[in-house]
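hiii, so i know i said id send this last week but things got crazy w the move. better late than never?? heres the sequnce for the chain we talked about at the cafe, plus the structure i predicted for it. fair warning i was half asleep when i ran it
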Amino acid sequence: MHSSLVRLQNVFGFFTTVAFAIAALVALSVIVSPQTPSASIALRNVQVVKGRPHYYSTTKEEYAHIKFDLEADFSSLFNWNTKQLFVYVLATYPALTPSSPPSQAIIWDTIMASSAQQHPLNPLELLGLSSLTTSKPPSGTKSKPKPKAKTTAAPTPKATAKPGVLSLRNVKPKYQVTDVSGKLASRANVTLEVGWNVQPWVGALTWTMREGEGWGRWKGLRGGRSEVFEMPGLKGKKIETTGGAGGVPRGGEASPVVGV
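okay and structure toks below
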């Protein structure tokens, strides 16, 4: 006859096997969920200055401060297994030597939580005991009587915003663009790209798929790349968008060419 310890081990082993099988099914089931992300990004203005880009920098160097407009719809990336979405904007520019690969720097990022993470389930609400979590004044203290509020009609609740939708204007960068050479002024062929990373509850992380790289019901990101522009010189002032005519636009002259 089996002892209590052996029976406990058998129950625990069966539980872990079932939990692993369910987690694998959940992770694989997202393949049937269609994904059609789209984005549009445009340069608003750019400034190149010389100084210390960080408080811990010991030497002065050239760094770029880039502002942009962003329109994106990543709502199709949210499904039953999506915990949160990491979105970032990447600045890509060529290196000084032709043999070196292009340089890339993240200038902005954000985390978009799913609805389940924004409003986590409270087990006490299911049991009708949510009032137990509210704080009560300690015994022996007198609470001041609250003035009577005027009776007004209850406001109409607003619809919850759809997760994964971004509409931003004149966004300031979180991070400055620097280069190992310490020089960025008049650097040509610069682009801004939107990228994302889906972080699921269970399963593997998925990264940005560009247009034409999708497979099955998962489509690549439509758009998400700005027009090519050029870094301005060290003039110490911002160059606003004026809509350059022809050729490669200089900093602040790029206009959106990708639609959502």
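btw The CA atoms of residues 42 and 210 lie 17 Å apart. thought thatd interest u
miss u guys!!
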